[in-house]
Fold this sequence. Notes:
Number of strands: 6
Largest sheet: 3 strands, parallel
Distance between the termini: 72 Å
Strand order of the largest sheet: 1-3-5
CATH class of the domain at 70-147: Alpha Beta
Helix content: 10-25%
Order of helices and strands: HEHEHEEEHE
Structural class: alpha/beta
Amino acid sequence: MILNDVHVGIQRQKARKRIGRGSGSGHGKTSGRGHKGFFSRSGSSRRRGFHGGQKPLFRRVAKRGFNNKCFALDVAVVNVGELNDSFETGAEITPALLLEKGLIRTKFDELKVLGDGQLSKNFRISAHRFSASAEQKILAVGGSFERIPTGAV
């Protein structure tokens, strides 16, 4: 091994191929496209799913099913355990306050309070939906909840 030759030929960034810059470059004249034919022309490219003239897979497979997922509401969830850790006793909790505190980080249509975790403080909670266990835990500690109509935040 010769130490002078260790880094020979190693480059940080490979230089781009300069096509169409004369015959001396090795990529002149036809610029690597060959002679004539579809792929020598400008604008030539195969579309996605092209199978060489054979009927493509996406046209051979039957269309099936339908879903209404695009019309579904985006429901943000928060657990009573998180509320217990983040708020003081007697706090009035609204969706806007949860967004401000960072307990909800995404855009949502409705807010649902779930019953996971322990609740030891009483709150007045406003949300669109409540799970049955969340309702029981809120009422058990002397808190109250209010359902907001859909569409209101």
